[in-house]
Each structure stands twice: as structure tokens, then as C-alpha cells.
Specification:
This protein is about 70% helix and about 0% strand. It is mainly α and about 200 residues long. It has 2 domains: about 130 residues; about 55 residues, no CATH class. The radius of gyration is 21 Å and the shape is globular. The N and C termini lie far apart (about 60 Å).
């Protein structure tokens, strides 16, 4: 058994353990109308992870798969746990959504995960036929990746300079109540919205 296989098995075991624990916790403790099928999100992620993500994570360095794995784990496993654990079911909307709307949103998230998983599988199978392992002595001179990362970082810092209050608005785990009407109160964002709607 090689090192790559050990990594895949270890990661599968960790995701399986956490995913099923969250699934049972959410199923047994959810107490808000409309959130009953929320346990399906960590369950589906736990099922699809060893099929669509784990086999390709250690195949070659792929920044998209690494970032997507982290974000999707947070979205489909950690977020349902935090919603139930904190009891923060209402979200930012001034009017609570209908139970049918919540059901539809959960099922759409499941559909999204299945669609992305199938796309990753198909794309990785296509790319695996074209991609060859580079030799150790061969130096890769690909500046396009560096340019893309630098452009992304530059745009991020530019956004911070143009809208300096952006960092105070980032509240991932516990959103502030005053951020509900952020677009209406922020003149810069309102101008941008007006520009794009022309």
C-alpha cells in the first residue's frame, strides 16, 4: 500500500466520521419548521466525498479541488452543524422563509453538490488521459498561474482600498443583525448595483 492510498483512506475515514456524526446530531436536534431535511446535506457529502473528491485530491496538485473540498466541507457539513448548534435558524431575512422554501433550498443544494461531483469525475477522467506526470528534473516554467494568483490578490487589496469597511462586514459564523440592509445603506455598493443594472 503506497503513501497516496494511505492518505486517501485516512481522509475518507476522517470525513466519514465527522460527516456521519454531524448527520446524526442535526437529525436528532433540529427544532425549526422547514429544516427537517437539513441532515441530508452532511449525509450526501459523506457519500460523495470518497467517490468524487478523495480519489483525485492526491493524484496531482490541483488548487481548485483543494479549495473546493475545503469550502464544500464547510458548507455541507460544518454549516448545518453550526445552524443547529447555535439555533440560528432565521438567517438575515427580516421575514422568515416558508418551510417549503427551506425544503427547496436544501434540495437545490443537494442537486448542486451532485452536479459538481459528476462534473469533477468527468473532467478528471478526461484530464487523466491527457496529463502526464512531469519528470523530477524537468522544471516547469508556467507563469500563467503566478499571474492569475497575483491578479486575484491585487483585486482583493484594491477592493479593500475602495471599500475600507469591508473587513468589518465579514462575519462568517455569527452574522450581525445590522448587516441585513447592507446594500441599501452603503452608497458605494448602491452605486455599483446601479452601474450593473444599466
Amino acid at each position: 500500500m503506497n503513501q497516496r492510498t494511505l492518505y486517501i483512506l485516512g481522509l475518507n475515514f476522517i470525513v466519514f466520521s465527522i460527516g456521519l456524526s454531524v448527520c446524526f446530531y442535526v437529525h436528532n436536534n433540529v427544532n425549526f419548521v422547514g429544516y427537517e431535511p437539513l441532515y441530508l446535506l452532511p449525509l450526501l457529502y459523506t457519500i460523495l466525498f470518497p467517490i468524487a473528491l478523495a480519489p483525485f485530491l492526491f493524484k496531482r496538485f490541483n488548487i481548485f479541488l483543494i479549495v473546493f473540498t475545503g469550502i464544500s466541507f464547510a458548507r455541507y457539513v460544518i454549516l448545518p452543524f453550526l445552524i443547529v448548534y447555535t439555533g440560528y435558524y432565521g438567517g438575515r431575512s427580516p421575514e422568515p422563509p416558508l418551510a417549503e422554501s427551506l425544503h427547496k433550498a436544501i434540495y437545490l443544494m443537494m442537486y448542486e453538490l451532485v452536479a459538481i461531483a459528476l462534473t469533477i469525475i468527468v473532467m478528471e477522467l478526461i484530464l487523466s488521459k491527457k496529463w502526464k506526470t512531469p519528470q523530477v528534473k524537468q522544471r516547469l516554467a508556467d507563469n500563467s498561474r503566478k499571474d492569475g494568483f497575483l491578479l486575484f490578490i491585487l483585486l482583493g487589496f484594491t477592493a479593500l482600498l475602495v471599500i475600507p469597511g469591508t473587513t468589518s462586514m465579514i462575519t462568517f459564523f455569527f452574522p450581525k443583525k445590522e448587516l441585513v440592509n447592507i446594500v441599501a445603506n452603503n452608497s458605494t455598493l448602491s452605486m455599483l448595483g446601479g452601474t450593473f443594472s444599466l
